[in-house]
């Protein structure tokens, strides 16, 4: 029998490809959708032995879909951002990026956080790393021509930088679950991802978070922490992932890795933020003050309450109530994590905590869906459930622009009236709750988890993958020593298995 060293590389590649989970075999919706490109992958297909690897295919699809999203913004690029407030809404092509080029001082060469802005917005209201991203794009924007010409260039420069972020997200999601690279197609083809990618700068934080998830899956705890700290320096939500990680490391007894992750996150966040904190504290703190002071805004159930009440809730009340609600959700997720029959997968809990924050927050901008897309794919890579949620998000995307068209069209009232917009918000909320429900069901009934059906434990879990529990709450939380994956074979989850995430 030939040794491993003498075995041709193509044989190893074919063996690795044989272990790859193919959605067209296990997912009915994916199989039906594949008919558009020739049908499901054949049994003898050897994609891993050609240039067309799954990751490369996913990245190219992601770039192609991103380009379609740019085309969708074409009506606004020509005139909608500059002439007539309602045009950018009726064509559903609004973006903050060109408006803030002048509105936040980039056209005048002002330095974010250090220079005051004219008007009510005294400083830039974005976290530091996002401000750096915006400033770099301003440096790359030609300063000649009319202001409209400069704003068009600024949007295009940002679009190019955000496209790079989208490619990073596609690569990271495809590689996080080693045997499920094709799940990255869910990210690449997600319609809400395409429509909202260039509304704002959220893709920077999403890309850093996706890279952090990949590092944790590879067992690189410190790199995970550094990337998560950078992501938190770009947007607040990534810091919530430390909560699920704490619970899972507690249950598995992996305190050293958790400590490295937290240490890396704190140091990375301080490296970015401390210089601005020391020399421009008022500008640095604007993001946090603005988040606290802003009232009830678009997309939240709080807005439905406020617009249907003769005594709408005050900002202070909503701040307190939203905080209490999200903390209650976090406590519930914590109980779920420590009492589930088997330790939940990291991606499952990560999705739930970010979704809880979105559902209880006092504002839901349409681009916030980008936060959830990679986490949703890793938590529940089931095409039917993912597409149900995406349909709801697209409905909300159209709803908010039609509502703004209605409010800006004067007596013409072209668009969606207030009660119609409330239904769009309800659709968004119900779609997100539905996806949360199926993820919770997978946690309580791990035999229905499509990732574990293939024989894996927690391929995004890094050191948690296959680890035994050292702490649980309640007798029901003692998982069986052996579990039967799809196909009837028996897997010992206390040992490293070939082809699962622990072999990365």
TrEMBL record:
Its main location: membrane. Residues 1-25, 481-504 are annotated as: Disordered. The keyword Transferase applies. It is a multi-pass membrane protein. It is found in: Cell membrane. The keyword Aminoacyl-tRNA synthetase does not apply. GO terms for cellular component: plasma membrane. Keywords: Cell membrane, Membrane, Transferase, Transmembrane, Transmembrane helix. Residues 12-25 have a biased composition (Basic and acidic residues). One of its GO terms (molecular function) is hexosyltransferase activity. The chain crosses the membrane at residues 51-71, 123-141, 153-173, 185-216, 222-249, 261-281, 317-339, 346-364, 421-440. It comes from the Bacteria. Belongs to the glycosyltransferase 87 family. This is DUF2029 domain-containing protein. The lineage of its organism: Bacteria, Bacillati, Actinomycetota, Actinomycetes, Kitasatosporales.
């Amino acid at each position: 029998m030939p040794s491993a060293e003498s075995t041709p590389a193509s044989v190893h590649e074919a063996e690795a490809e044989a272990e790859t989970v193919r959605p067209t075999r296990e997912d009915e919706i994916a199989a039906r959708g594949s008919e558009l490109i020739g049908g499901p992958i054949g049994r003898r297909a050897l994609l891993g032995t050609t240039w067309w690897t799954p990751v490369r295919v996913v990245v190219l699809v992601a770039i192609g879909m991103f380009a379609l999203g740019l085309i969708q913004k074409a009506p606004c690029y020509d005139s909608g951002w500059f002439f007539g407030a309602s045009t950018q809404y009726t064509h559903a092509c609004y973006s903050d990026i060109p408006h803030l080029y002048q509105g936040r001082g980039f056209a005048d060469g002002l330095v974010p956080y250090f220079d005051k802005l004219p008007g009510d917005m005294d400083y830039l209201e974005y976290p530091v790393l996002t401000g750096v991203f915006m400033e770099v794009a301003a440096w790359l924007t030609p300063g000649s021509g009319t202001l409209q010409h400069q704003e068009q260039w600024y949007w295009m420069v940002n679009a190019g930088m955000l496209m790079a972020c989208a490619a990073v997200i596609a690569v990271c999601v495809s590689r996080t679950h080693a045997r499920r690279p094709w799940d990255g197609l869910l990210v690449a083809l997600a319609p809400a991802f395409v429509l909202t990618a260039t509304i704002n700068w959220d893709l920077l934080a999403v890309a850093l978070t996706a890279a952090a998830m990949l590092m944790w899956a590879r067992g690189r705890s410190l790199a995970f922490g550094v990337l998560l700290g950078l992501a938190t320096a770009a947007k607040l939500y990534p810091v919530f992932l430390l909560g699920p990680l704490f619970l899972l490391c507690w249950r598995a007894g992996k305190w050293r890795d958790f400590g490295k992750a937290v240490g890396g996150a704190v140091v990375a966040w301080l490296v970015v933020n401390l210089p601005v904190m020391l020399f421009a504290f008022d500008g640095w703190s604007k993001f946090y003050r603005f988040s606290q002071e802003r009232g009830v805004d678009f997309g939240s159930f709080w807005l439905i309450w406020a617009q249907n009440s003769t005594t709408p809730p005050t900002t202070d009340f909503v701040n307190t109530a939203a905080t209490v609600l999200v903390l209650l959700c976090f406590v519930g997720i914590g109980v779920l994590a420590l009492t589930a029959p088997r330790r939940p997968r990291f991606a499952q809990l990560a999705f739930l905590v970010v979704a809880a924050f979105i559902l209880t927050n006092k504002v839901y901008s349409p681009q916030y869906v980008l936060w959830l897309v990679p986490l949703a794919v890793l938590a529940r890579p089931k095409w039917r459930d993912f597409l149900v949620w995406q349909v709801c998000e697209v409905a909300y995307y159209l709803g908010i622009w039609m509502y703004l068209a209605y409010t800006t069209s004067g007596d013409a009232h072209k668009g969606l009236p207030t009660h119609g917009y409330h239904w769009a918000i309800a659709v968004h909320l119900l779609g997100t709750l539905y996806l949360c429900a199926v993820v919770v069901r997978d946690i309580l009934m791990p035999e229905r988890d499509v990732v574990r059906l293939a024989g894996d434990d927690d391929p995004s879990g890094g050191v948690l993958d296959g680890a035994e529990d050292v702490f649980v709450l309640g007798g029901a939380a003692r998982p069986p020593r052996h579990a039967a994956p799809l196909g009837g074979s028996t897997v010992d989850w206390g040992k490293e298995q070939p082809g699962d995430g622990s072999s990365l």
